[in-house]
Structures are given as C-alpha cells and as structure tokens.
Amino acid sequence: MARIDSDQAEPQLLLVEGRTDKHVVWQICNRSPQLPDFYISERGDVNSVMASIGPELLAEGRQALGILVDTDDNPQARWGEIAYRLSINGFPPPVSPDPDGTIISGAELRVGVWLMPDNVLTGEIEEFVERMIPAGDPVWPMSRDYIDRLPAYAGKFAEGKTLRAQIYAWLATRADPRLMGQSIGTRDLEIDGPLCQRFIAWLNRLFA
Fold first, then answer.
1. I need a labelling partner for 111 at 20 to 30 A (CA). Which of 31, 89, 147, 208 fits?
2. Widest CA span of the chain, in angstroms?
3. Rounded Cα distance, 86 and 92, in Å
4. Confidence check: pLDDT of 7 > 60
C-alpha cells in the first residue's frame, strides 16, 4: 500500500515532482491492492527531485528508490541528467530508458526510473492521465474541441498546458467533478489500459 505521509525514514521511497503526481500515483495504488508498501514523497519540482537523488540513494536503510519525473519536451536530456546522477552514485544506468520502466538492481538497493508519460514520448503526467479516459468516451472529443476553440484572449492557462485544460474540461462533466487523482478513486478514470498496467507492473517490480 502506498503512503503519502510519514515522520520516519522509509526503506522504499518514490520521488515525485508535485502534488498532482503524488495523488495520481496514490489513487492508482489504492485501486491496486496487490502493490507492495512504499512511500510517495513530493519534492515540489523536477530540480528538487534531481537534487534529492544522491542523498536518497545514500539514506540509511534504503531498499528501493523510485524516481518519477516528466520528460517535458526533451526525453533525452531528462534521461541524461538522471543517468549522470545515478552513475556518480554507483548505479550505472542503461544507455536509454526501458519503455516498461527502468530498474537497476544493486547489491542492496534497487533504483527505478519512470519518465512521464511512457518513458519514450515527450510530455507530462497529463499525457499519462489522458490514456486513462475510457476508450470511446463521447465527451472527450467535445472537451478537446471546446478548449481548442477558445479565442486567445479567453484562455487563461499557460502556454503548453492545453491538454491539462482539456482534461479538466472533461472532468467538469462528471457526476461529481474532481481533480485527476480523485477521479481515479471514483473510477471516472480507468487503470485497466496498457500504459497504466505497465506502470503498475513497474511499481511491483521496483518495490517487491
């Protein structure tokens, strides 16, 4: 079972950037009771996650460390930065990330890396969540069209955050509109798709 609050050092730890990432993962875990115990730690942004890698690898009693970050617009650069930090701490990574989620096994510690959305493509957690919208949902195309048709002066969301706005427009049409993580718990978003199941399998391998 994943936990998001703890006052003590955790042997199995997953580093994430922000609150949305934390609650999306937590709700996926709540829907997947077979997952092993680990703690999800929100660090605030990608730079803080990167800065945490070395110290968390060296933490006393650490058994497994997961690193979950967005690729944004440059998967190669993101992987290169993580690979460098792992290498200088004695965990040489593969040349490129595993599409099913990278895991590096040391003598006493496993390290895992998941690059949102799917370890290959550019993007953020929203691209991952988009694939959790039920296949063939009739409202999703309308939600995308609504946001796309907004005149430039009317859209207050930041440049590059169109997909986030589209997803929240879709969530607003649910019987009980909620945030992305909460909508996994209410089963508006599905966890049975191939990508989410790959992510769950990576968590199982990492924290087993």
1. 31
2. 56
3. 6
4. no
Query: Which domains are assigned to the chain?
Result: 2-124+191-207 (3.40.50), 134-185 (no CATH)
Do 71 and 116 form a contact (C-beta atoms < 8 A)? yes
Number of C-beta neighbours around residue 83 at 10 A? 19
Please state, in angstroms and rounded to a whole number, the distance separating the CA atoms of residues 69 and 125. Answer: 8
Query: What is the torsional sign of CA 32, 35, 41, 47?
Result: negative
The pTM assigned to this predicted structure is 0.94
- The one-letter amino acid code at 30 reads N
The amino acid that residue 193 corresponds to is G
Token pair of 13, please?
A: 């730890």
Residue with tokens 């496993």: 110
